[in-house]
Design goal:
The complex is a heterotrimer of chains A (129), B (256) and C (333). Chain B has 256 residues and is an alpha+beta fold. Chain B is 34% helix and 18% strand. Chain B contains nine helices and eleven strands. With 333 residues, chain C is an alpha+beta fold. The chains are: A mainly alpha (129), B alpha+beta (256), C alpha+beta (333).
Chain lengths: 129, 256, 333
């Protein structure tokens, strides 16, 4: 009997199909996206830090750029990624050990609320620089 | 009898042809379930529609499909629960299974996993009644303990899992990893492990769970537990297996 | 097949005085059939089944069980497959191939591919259940089989562990069967023209709920999970109403109708499946000049899961647990 595997997304991308999925799946997707984002950021960050090797002139000119509101906005996005990934990571660590499995949705909501509040406070502080 | 004219948009595929959707409008009683609508399509419109169904009361697990994108058992899903009165009701086969024809998917690999877990379909019944998968059903009834007749040491019942494959369709890791045992396979391993006293079998089952395509592939999406029509809670069982595996590792490290 | 049976015994309970009068006849009947039935006290019955109607007048405990409907059938199919049978699913018999008056094969439409196929065979066994009459008609022979539908209602929770029956002659809604997480109330009986399209009469559903409450009053409080109807193949006996037709089975060799190569087996209940298989196998062997004894009564069945495993196109192997029942070799005798 012949069978067909039809999918518009390639196998590695199917997790992006979140239609009709619930909170747990959103946590999963956000964790993946923030994880990828943080990895990209890590390389950028190391690249930026390597400017230190080029002496004060190179570093100072970078800092001047870094103070621009566009970069600060990116910093806020970065912070969002860190908060979501970090706090959700805690949730996954807990549920992965079987603690709070029944409350996983509530935990996710709490995490998102904390992230939102912390992000708001941090954004205010960042932009008042 | 109040009748409804319900428009269905059904996924069609036959080998060698391009997949697509066919639309049918069926006239069914207002109290009908979605499977009755599919039956009506087959009987009155298109005999070539391939679909699976048997028991019509969520016991066999054959009829599992996606209704408007969400995995459900059409035999216990009322048409009025999924139809807004105007738009078409979309029916698709389960995700993460090879499609054989129309709404029928290939269950061979799924049952290979279930055979590997080798969970017996019978288990001990609870000490009280009523027993249900849906807690709302018993909201009005006080649970009561049952006494066993003298010729019985326990009552038995069938396991809640009906091997419908809905959890596998909802699981993002199933989408990514072809060999993942899946929520159904791992939940079955958990149940089988709970019921066995044979240490060799326990080692084997835990070995499967601890393996490359076992519990560690789960990334906590919890969609399986959300979608399961029988409240099996596969995610909870996967985490329970993890707890046991880790406990064993600790004990081994401490030289036990 | 212990894994596919809930073996929790059954109770026959008397609700009315008329039921009570039936008790002795019932006990005698059980004794005559060697069914170990014993009367138990009403208090004990109510302790064992707390949701049973507290007003029952008598209770008789009998051995009984509940099978897993689909998997039970699949176990037979899997065993047949393991022993060399080819099972064509989604294939509809559109016609019987005939040479003169004799049947030489079947024409099927395989709904996987949409294509028609002609299969030439030595003998066609018509085991089509409620469609047996329809299939026989394609060969120009008659079979006294009446598709007789019945309604069952499955509740949202399981209210009993034992099979509960009304202690009286068969009537509508006189049984509540527990299964997994549900209790199923059954059943009714009416002849239908077309087994493919059965409309469930709402009054039958109401009757199930009303009669069910006689056995378990709490039925009133539990939502309905599903209602289903399917036609049973009953063998017609002139002058007997549908409700009274017994569930006997019969084997017809249509050579006596002038049509060779065609045999029908019909009637019966699931519990008599193997007896039916034995009867028709013996007939088939006689017709094909094969001298062999039917081994069904001693053949253990394979795991139902094998039914699916052998049919798939891909071949992943998952290492089974030691001693797992899915090994095909265990059912080869």
């Amino acid at each position: 009997m012949s069978t067909l595997n039809y999918r518009k997304l390639s196998r590695s991308g199917r997790w992006l199909d979140v239609r009709r999925r619930r909170l747990g799946m959103w946590a999963y997707v956000l964790n993946r996206i923030t994880g990828l984002g943080l990895v990209v950021y890590l390389y950028l960050h190391l690249g930026v830090l390597s400017l230190l090797l080029r002496g004060p002139a190179a570093w100072d000119s970078f800092v001047a750029v870094a103070r621009s509101p566009y970069v600060l906005a990116l910093d806020v996005i970065l912070l969002a990624g860190i908060l979501i990934h970090g706090l959700n990571g805690l949730r996954i660590a807990l549920t992965g050990f079987g603690i709070g499995v029944g409350a996983q949705k509530a935990l996710f909501v709490v995490i998102m609320v904390i992230s939102a509040v912390a992000l708001w406070v941090a954004a205010l502080k960042i932009f008042r620089v | 009898m109040n009748m409804l004219k319900v428009p269905l948009q059904i996924f069609r595929y036959k080998p060698g042809q391009t997949p697509g959707y066919d639309t049918f409008t069926v006239e069914i009683p207002a109290t009908a379930h979605v499977i009755d609508a599919i039956d009506a399509v087959w009987t009155s419109h298109d005999h070539s529609l391939a679909f699976r169904r048997a028991c019509h009361h969520s016991s066999c697990g054959s009829c599992a499909i996606r209704i408007n994108g969400l995995e459900k058992l059409p035999c216990v899903t009322r048409v009025t629960d999924v139809w807004d009165g105007r738009s078409q009701v979309r029916l698709d086969p389960l995700r993460n299974f090879p499609i054989v024809s129309d709404l029928v998917v290939d269950m061979a690999d799924f049952f290979r996993r279930m055979s590997a877990a080798d969970m017996a379909m019978i288990c001990e019944a609870e000490a009280f009644l009523p027993f249900t998968v849906d807690t709302f059903a018993v909201a009005d009834l006080e649970p009561k303990l049952v006494e066993l007749p003298e010729n019985f040491s326990r009552f038995t019942r069938f396991e809640k899992c009906i091997e419908c494959g809905i959890c596998m369709s909802a699981c993002p890791t199933m989408a990514a990893d072809e060999k993942f045992l899946g929520p159904a396979g791992l939940a079955a391993i958990h149940q089988a492990r709970k019921k066995t006293l044979d240490p060799v079998k326990v080692e084997h089952l835990l070995g499967l769970a601890d393996g490359e395509h076992g519990v560690w592939r789960c990334h906590s999406a919890f969609e399986c537990t959300e979608a399961c029509p029988q409240a099996v809670d596969p995610a909870g069982k996967i985490m329970a297996l993890r707890r046991e595996l880790i406990a064993r590792r600790f004990l081994k490290m401490l030289g036990k | 097949m212990p894994d596919l049976l809930e073996l929790n015994d059954g109770l026959f309970v008397a609700i009315t005085e008329a039921d009570l009068v039936f008790k002795d006849r019932f006990l005698q009947g059980c004794a005559a059939c060697h069914v170990p039935a014993r009367e138990i006290s009403v208090e004990h019955a109510l302790a064992v089944e707390p949701f049973l109607n507290p007003k029952i007048l008598a209770a008789i405990q009998v051995p009984d069980g509940v099978f897993e409907p689909f998997r039970f059938c699949l176990a037979f199919l899997a065993t047949a497959q393991e022993n060399g049978a080819t099972i064509r699913t989604y294939s509809e018999v559109t016609d019987l191939l005939c040479a003169g008056k004799n049947v030489t094969g079947v024409r099927i439409r395989d709904q996987h591919t949409g294509k028609q196929e002609a299969l030439k065979v030595d003998l066609v066994v018509n085991a089509a259940g409620p469609w047996a009459g329809e299939i026989a008609a394609k060969a120009g022979v008659g079979v006294p089989e009446i598709p007789t539908a019945g309604v069952m209602v499955a509740l949202d929770c399981r209210l009993n562990n034992l099979v509960l029956n009304r202690l009286n002659k068969p009537s509508d809604g006189d049984i509540i069967v527990p299964q997994r997480a549900t209790s199923v109330i059954g059943t009714t009986s009416w002849a239908v023209e077309n087994p493919d399209l059965i409309t469930i009469p709402p009054e039958h559903v109401d009757r199930m709920i009303t009669q069910g409450q006689q056995l378990i009053p709490a039925v009133k409080k539990v939502p309905m999970r599903a209602k289903m109807a399917v036609a049973r193949p009953l063998i017609a006996r002139s002058g007997i109403a549908a409700r009274e037709l017994s569930r006997t089975f019969e084997c017809f060799d249509h050579e006596r109708d002038g049509t060779n190569g065609f045999v029908t087996i019909t009637g019966g209940k699931t519990t008599t499946a193997r007896a039916m298989a034995e009867k028709v196998s013996d007939m088939v062997c006689r017709k094909l000049d094969i001298s062999a004894e039917c081994r069904t009564r001693d053949t253990p069945l394979c795991s139902y899961r094998l039914f699916f495993q052998q049919r798939g196109s891909r071949n992943q192997s998952f290492v089974g647990a030691p001693g797992d029942r899915s090994s095909g070799r265990e059912c080869f005798r």
